[in-house]
Structures are given as structure tokens and as C-alpha cells.
């Protein structure tokens, strides 16, 4: 299978991340698709890959966090609710 960037042999089965229907959206699906591709590249190349995802809406970050929690990818969230203490 070919991905959006034209790369061949992308394992699309790994995209089956459990997501509740409430939090499923084309934005989250697209972000997860891209993160999974990067993770597969990391496994092929043996190099660590990190990504930053920015959003103005905390609800988008909430939904992405729930989706990432259902995957085997590690993530950290930084938003306006963090304190310096």
C-alpha cells in the first residue's frame, strides 16, 4: 500500500487504534496516520523520531491523548494548565 507521501509498503493495519466514536475525527485520524508512519520509519531505520503536535484547542489534545493512550506510542502533553512549581 502507498501512503499520502508516496512511500510504499506502509503497514496500514497498525492504524487500527481503539478510539471511541465520540473522539474520532478526521484530524485525529490524520495525525495518527502520520505518527504511525513515523514510528514505522523509526523501526526500519533504528533511529529515534520525535514529533510535536500543536493545537489551539485543548479538546483536540484531549482526544489525541486518549487515542495515543490506546496505542503503544509514548507521549507527553504540555498546555496552559501546567505550572512552574
What does the model show?
The chain is mostly helical. It has a domain at 12-69. It has helices spanning 26-45, 58-69. It starts with 25 loop residues before the first helix and ends in a 16-residue tail after the last helix.
Helix content: 25-40%
- Return the string of H and E elements: HH
Count of beta strands: 0
Q: How would you describe the shape?
A: globular
Largest sheet: none
Average pLDDT taken over every residue: 75
Instruction: Report how far the terminal alpha carbons are from each other.
Output: 48 Å
- Spans of at least 5 consecutive residues whose pLDDT stays below 50 are 1-7, 12-22
Number of helices: 2
Strand content: under 5%
- Structural class computed from helices and strand pairing: mainly alpha
Radius of gyration: 14 Å
InterPro entries: P-loop_NTPase
Features:
mainly alpha; 2 helices; globular; P-loop_NTPase
SSE inventory with pairings:
Blueprint (H helix, E strand, L loop, with lengths): L25 H20 L12 H12 L16
Helix pairs in contact: 1-2
TL;DR?
With 85 residues, the chain is an all-alpha fold. It is 38% helix and 0% strand.
